[in-house]
Design brief:
single chain; about 190 residues; mainly beta; SH3 type barrels; OB fold (Dihydrolipoamide Acetyltransferase, E2P); 3 domains; 6-stranded antiparallel sheet; flat
């Protein structure tokens, strides 16, 4: 059990049977009444953010989380196969656990972070940035600048992202996987 005063960003708590990551917290000491802590929690499974208030006398259940480095190998139908970078074991993960966003950006040999709780895989996190090749996009024209607007483009993994008008098929781009946005053109 964890005291309210021991809460920090990044720890995982079990609230009403569900696992939540502490995103933000603030200790509030009003002029009248007892102090309390306002906590923003992000649900591990769905990324839903909720806000809770706890009195200083309350205790919460903290959960030990373990992170492991995985490398994507291949998929067979709705099962995706990864290699644990420390044990070199092959781990099969279903589409439900991965989520569509992760599947959209999976590339051969891509390294990801797997989060385990009680020896059970909870979630897989993408790296913040990936480099991908544009496979389909309307051709750019001379004079298109990065400020002129964007167009949809499909990358080699099958995901569609918005890129500047000057990007052409065959070019490599850096993409922020958190926001699904184009960052820059990359020379490969």
């Amino acid at each position: 059990m964890l005291s309210i005063n021991e809460i920090t960003n990044g720890i995982v708590l079990r609230v009403e049977g569900e696992l939540y990551l502490v995103v933000d917290y603030s200790h509030v000491k009003p002029g009248k009444g007892s102090a309390f802590v306002r906590v923003k929690l992000k649900k591990m499974k769905t990324d839903l953010v909720i806000e809770r208030t706890y009195r200083t006398a309350e205790r919460l259940e903290d959960v030990f989380m373990e992170e492991r480095r995985f490398q994507y190998q291949y998929n067979a139908g709705d099962t995706f196969h990864f290699m644990d970078q420390t044990t070199f074991e092959e781990i099969a993960v279903s589409r439900d656990v991965l989520g569509e966003k992760v599947i959209d950006y999976l590339q051969d040999n891509l390294e990801l972070i797997a989060v385990y709780c009680d020896n059970k895989l909870m979630k897989i996190h993408l790296p913040n940035f990936i480099v991908a090749q544009i496979t389909e996009a309307e051709p750019g024209f001379k004079g298109d600048s990065s400020r002129a607007g964007t167009k949809p483009a499909k990358i080699a993994t099958g995901a569609t992202v918005q890129v500047p008008l000057f990007i052409n098929p065959g070019e490599w781009v850096k993409i922020d996987t958190r926001t699904d946005q184009y960052v820059e053109r990359v020379q490969k």
